[in-house]
Amino acid sequence: MTRTRRLSRLSLPLLTLLLAFTQAAPALAVPVDALPVSTAVPGGVAVLPTGMQAGSAHYRESRVLLAEVDGLQYAVVGIPLSASPGTHALELRDAAGNSRSLSFTVTNKQYVEQRLTITNERQVNPNNEDMVRINRESAEMNAAFSRWDESLQPVLRMRAPTEGVRSSSFGLRRFFNEQPRAPHSGMDIAAPEGTPIVAPAPGVIVATGHYFFNGNTIILDHGHGLISLYCHMNTIDVTVGQRVEAGQQIGAVGQTGRVTGPHLHWSINLNNVRVDPALFLAD
Ligand SMILES: [Zn+2]
Q1: In CATH, what number is assigned to the domain containing residue 99?
Q2: Helix (H, G, I), strand (E, B) or coil at 21
Q3: CA distance between the termini of the chain
Q4: Residue 69: domain span
Q5: Closest by alpha carbon to 89, among 99, 72, 147?
Q6: Cα of 160 from ligand 1 centre, angstroms
Q7: Are 198 and 249 in contact (CB under 8 A)?
Q8: How many A from CA of 265 to the centre of ligand 1?
Q9: 152 CA distance to ligand 1 centroid (A)?
């Protein structure tokens, strides 16, 4: 065997190894075709040009999605419903480790009240046993919402996950049987039981379960802190770890958990904050 031939036999595994290292290098910004609607209000998304090539961005101690469109870098920041209007700061860091603070203004948004009557009293005032379950489920969901997966390429403009009447109910200050509860953190899409629910964007299923309030639920990770939630489903057609493409059926509309009728509750989490899903819809 000649020396050249021995070298060429070695070079393929070596090349594969080098490529693997290149792919594992931390991404500066994820290339996207389109950005969500920018609205710097509580429950909204601030799309901020970074004016630099940041290697990472943080807001309220959570990692923030960096997107690149036409060679320009943007931080796509989820603002919590509980945020106070005023000046907020985003911390940017470049590849060399130098950091810079970028401030932006959050303006006020007044969400109206919604009063609902729930016939199952335990779903409004759970007993002690229920509370143990609720706390366990909420820890499970919070763990899923705080994920950061750089191996996935998030898509920031999506199709609706189901055909139906889209309510603009995100952020409503809710009262169940006249008792104040957490604000509504998603979009409700009313549709008959059994209506297909599809993945609005590609991702990986990271949790499924039958939860006390949310009923049959799926959590879908799209990457870089963008994670979506589907609740009250009739059936779940996917399993944890499964990769799904945009448009692929993941389940069907139902009325499991705390509901007043069949609908899909759809939430979008960005940097561990629930934001208005309407900002991500393509149409
Ligand atoms: Zn809902």
Answers
A1: 2.60.40.1590
A2: helix
A3: 63
A4: 30-106
A5: 99
A6: 15
A7: yes
A8: 4
A9: 27
Q: How far apart are CA 282 and CA 160, in angstroms?
A: 8
Same-domain check for residues 244 and 271: yes
Residues 84, 141, single domain; the answer is no
Cα 187 to middle of ligand 1, angstroms: 6
Tell me the CA–centroid distance for residue 276 and ligand 1, in Å.
Answer: 12
What's the gap in Å between 277 CA and the centre of ligand 1?
Answer: 12
Which of the residue ranges 14-28, 227-241, 266-280 would you say has the lowest mean pLDDT?
A: 14-28
- Residue-wise pLDDT for 168-183, tens only, equals 789 998 888 888 888 9
Summarize pLDDT for 219-244 with one digit per residue, the tens: 999 999 999 999 999 999 999 999 99
Q: How far apart are CA 96 and CA 117, in angstroms?
A: 55
207 Cα–ligand 1 center, Å = 18
